[in-house]
Amino acid sequence: MNESYKNYAIIRDKFGFTDYKVCKKTGITTATMSNWKADKYTPKSDKLQKIADLFGVSLELLATGEEREGGETYYLNEETARTAQRIFENKELRLLFHAAEDAEPEDLEAVHAMLLALKRKERGETD
């Protein structure tokens, strides 16, 4: 198993994905994934970018297992990143991520609007 596949597998496992699920989400064939794992093939950069985009990581993290100083992060705001991590680590709340995974953008916008309305209500603001 080559080093980049090992790095990918660590990231994949953190997100609770399987190779099959990654293939379905990215359009990469299972044969490509199997050959990568067997060190018979290294996916081209466009395929690696699809994987990096799926997980919100850099190509460098996939290739080396390390992010250089100032590297890409999924969240621009550290507080948001910490909150998202807490949600991800909480088994019950993690369902939020999985439930939203295949949602249509319009549905996510509706949920977002509802959450904002609840926050306004909590603060005593009215529309």
TrEMBL record:
<dbReference type="InterPro" id="IPR010982">
    <property type="entry name" value="Lambda_DNA-bd_dom_sf"/>
</dbReference>
<dbReference type="InterPro" id="IPR001387">
    <property type="entry name" value="Cro/C1-type_HTH"/>
</dbReference>
<dbReference type="GO" id="GO:0003677">
    <property type="term" value="F:DNA binding"/>
</dbReference>
<dbReference type="Pfam" id="PF01381">
    <property type="entry name" value="HTH_3"/>
</dbReference>
<protein>
    <submittedName>
        <fullName>Helix-turn-helix protein</fullName>
    </submittedName>
</protein>
<dbReference type="GO" id="GO:0006357">
    <property type="term" value="P:regulation of transcription by RNA polymerase II"/>
</dbReference>
<feature type="domain" description="HTH cro/C1-type">
    <location>
        <begin position="11"/>
        <end position="62"/>
    </location>
</feature>
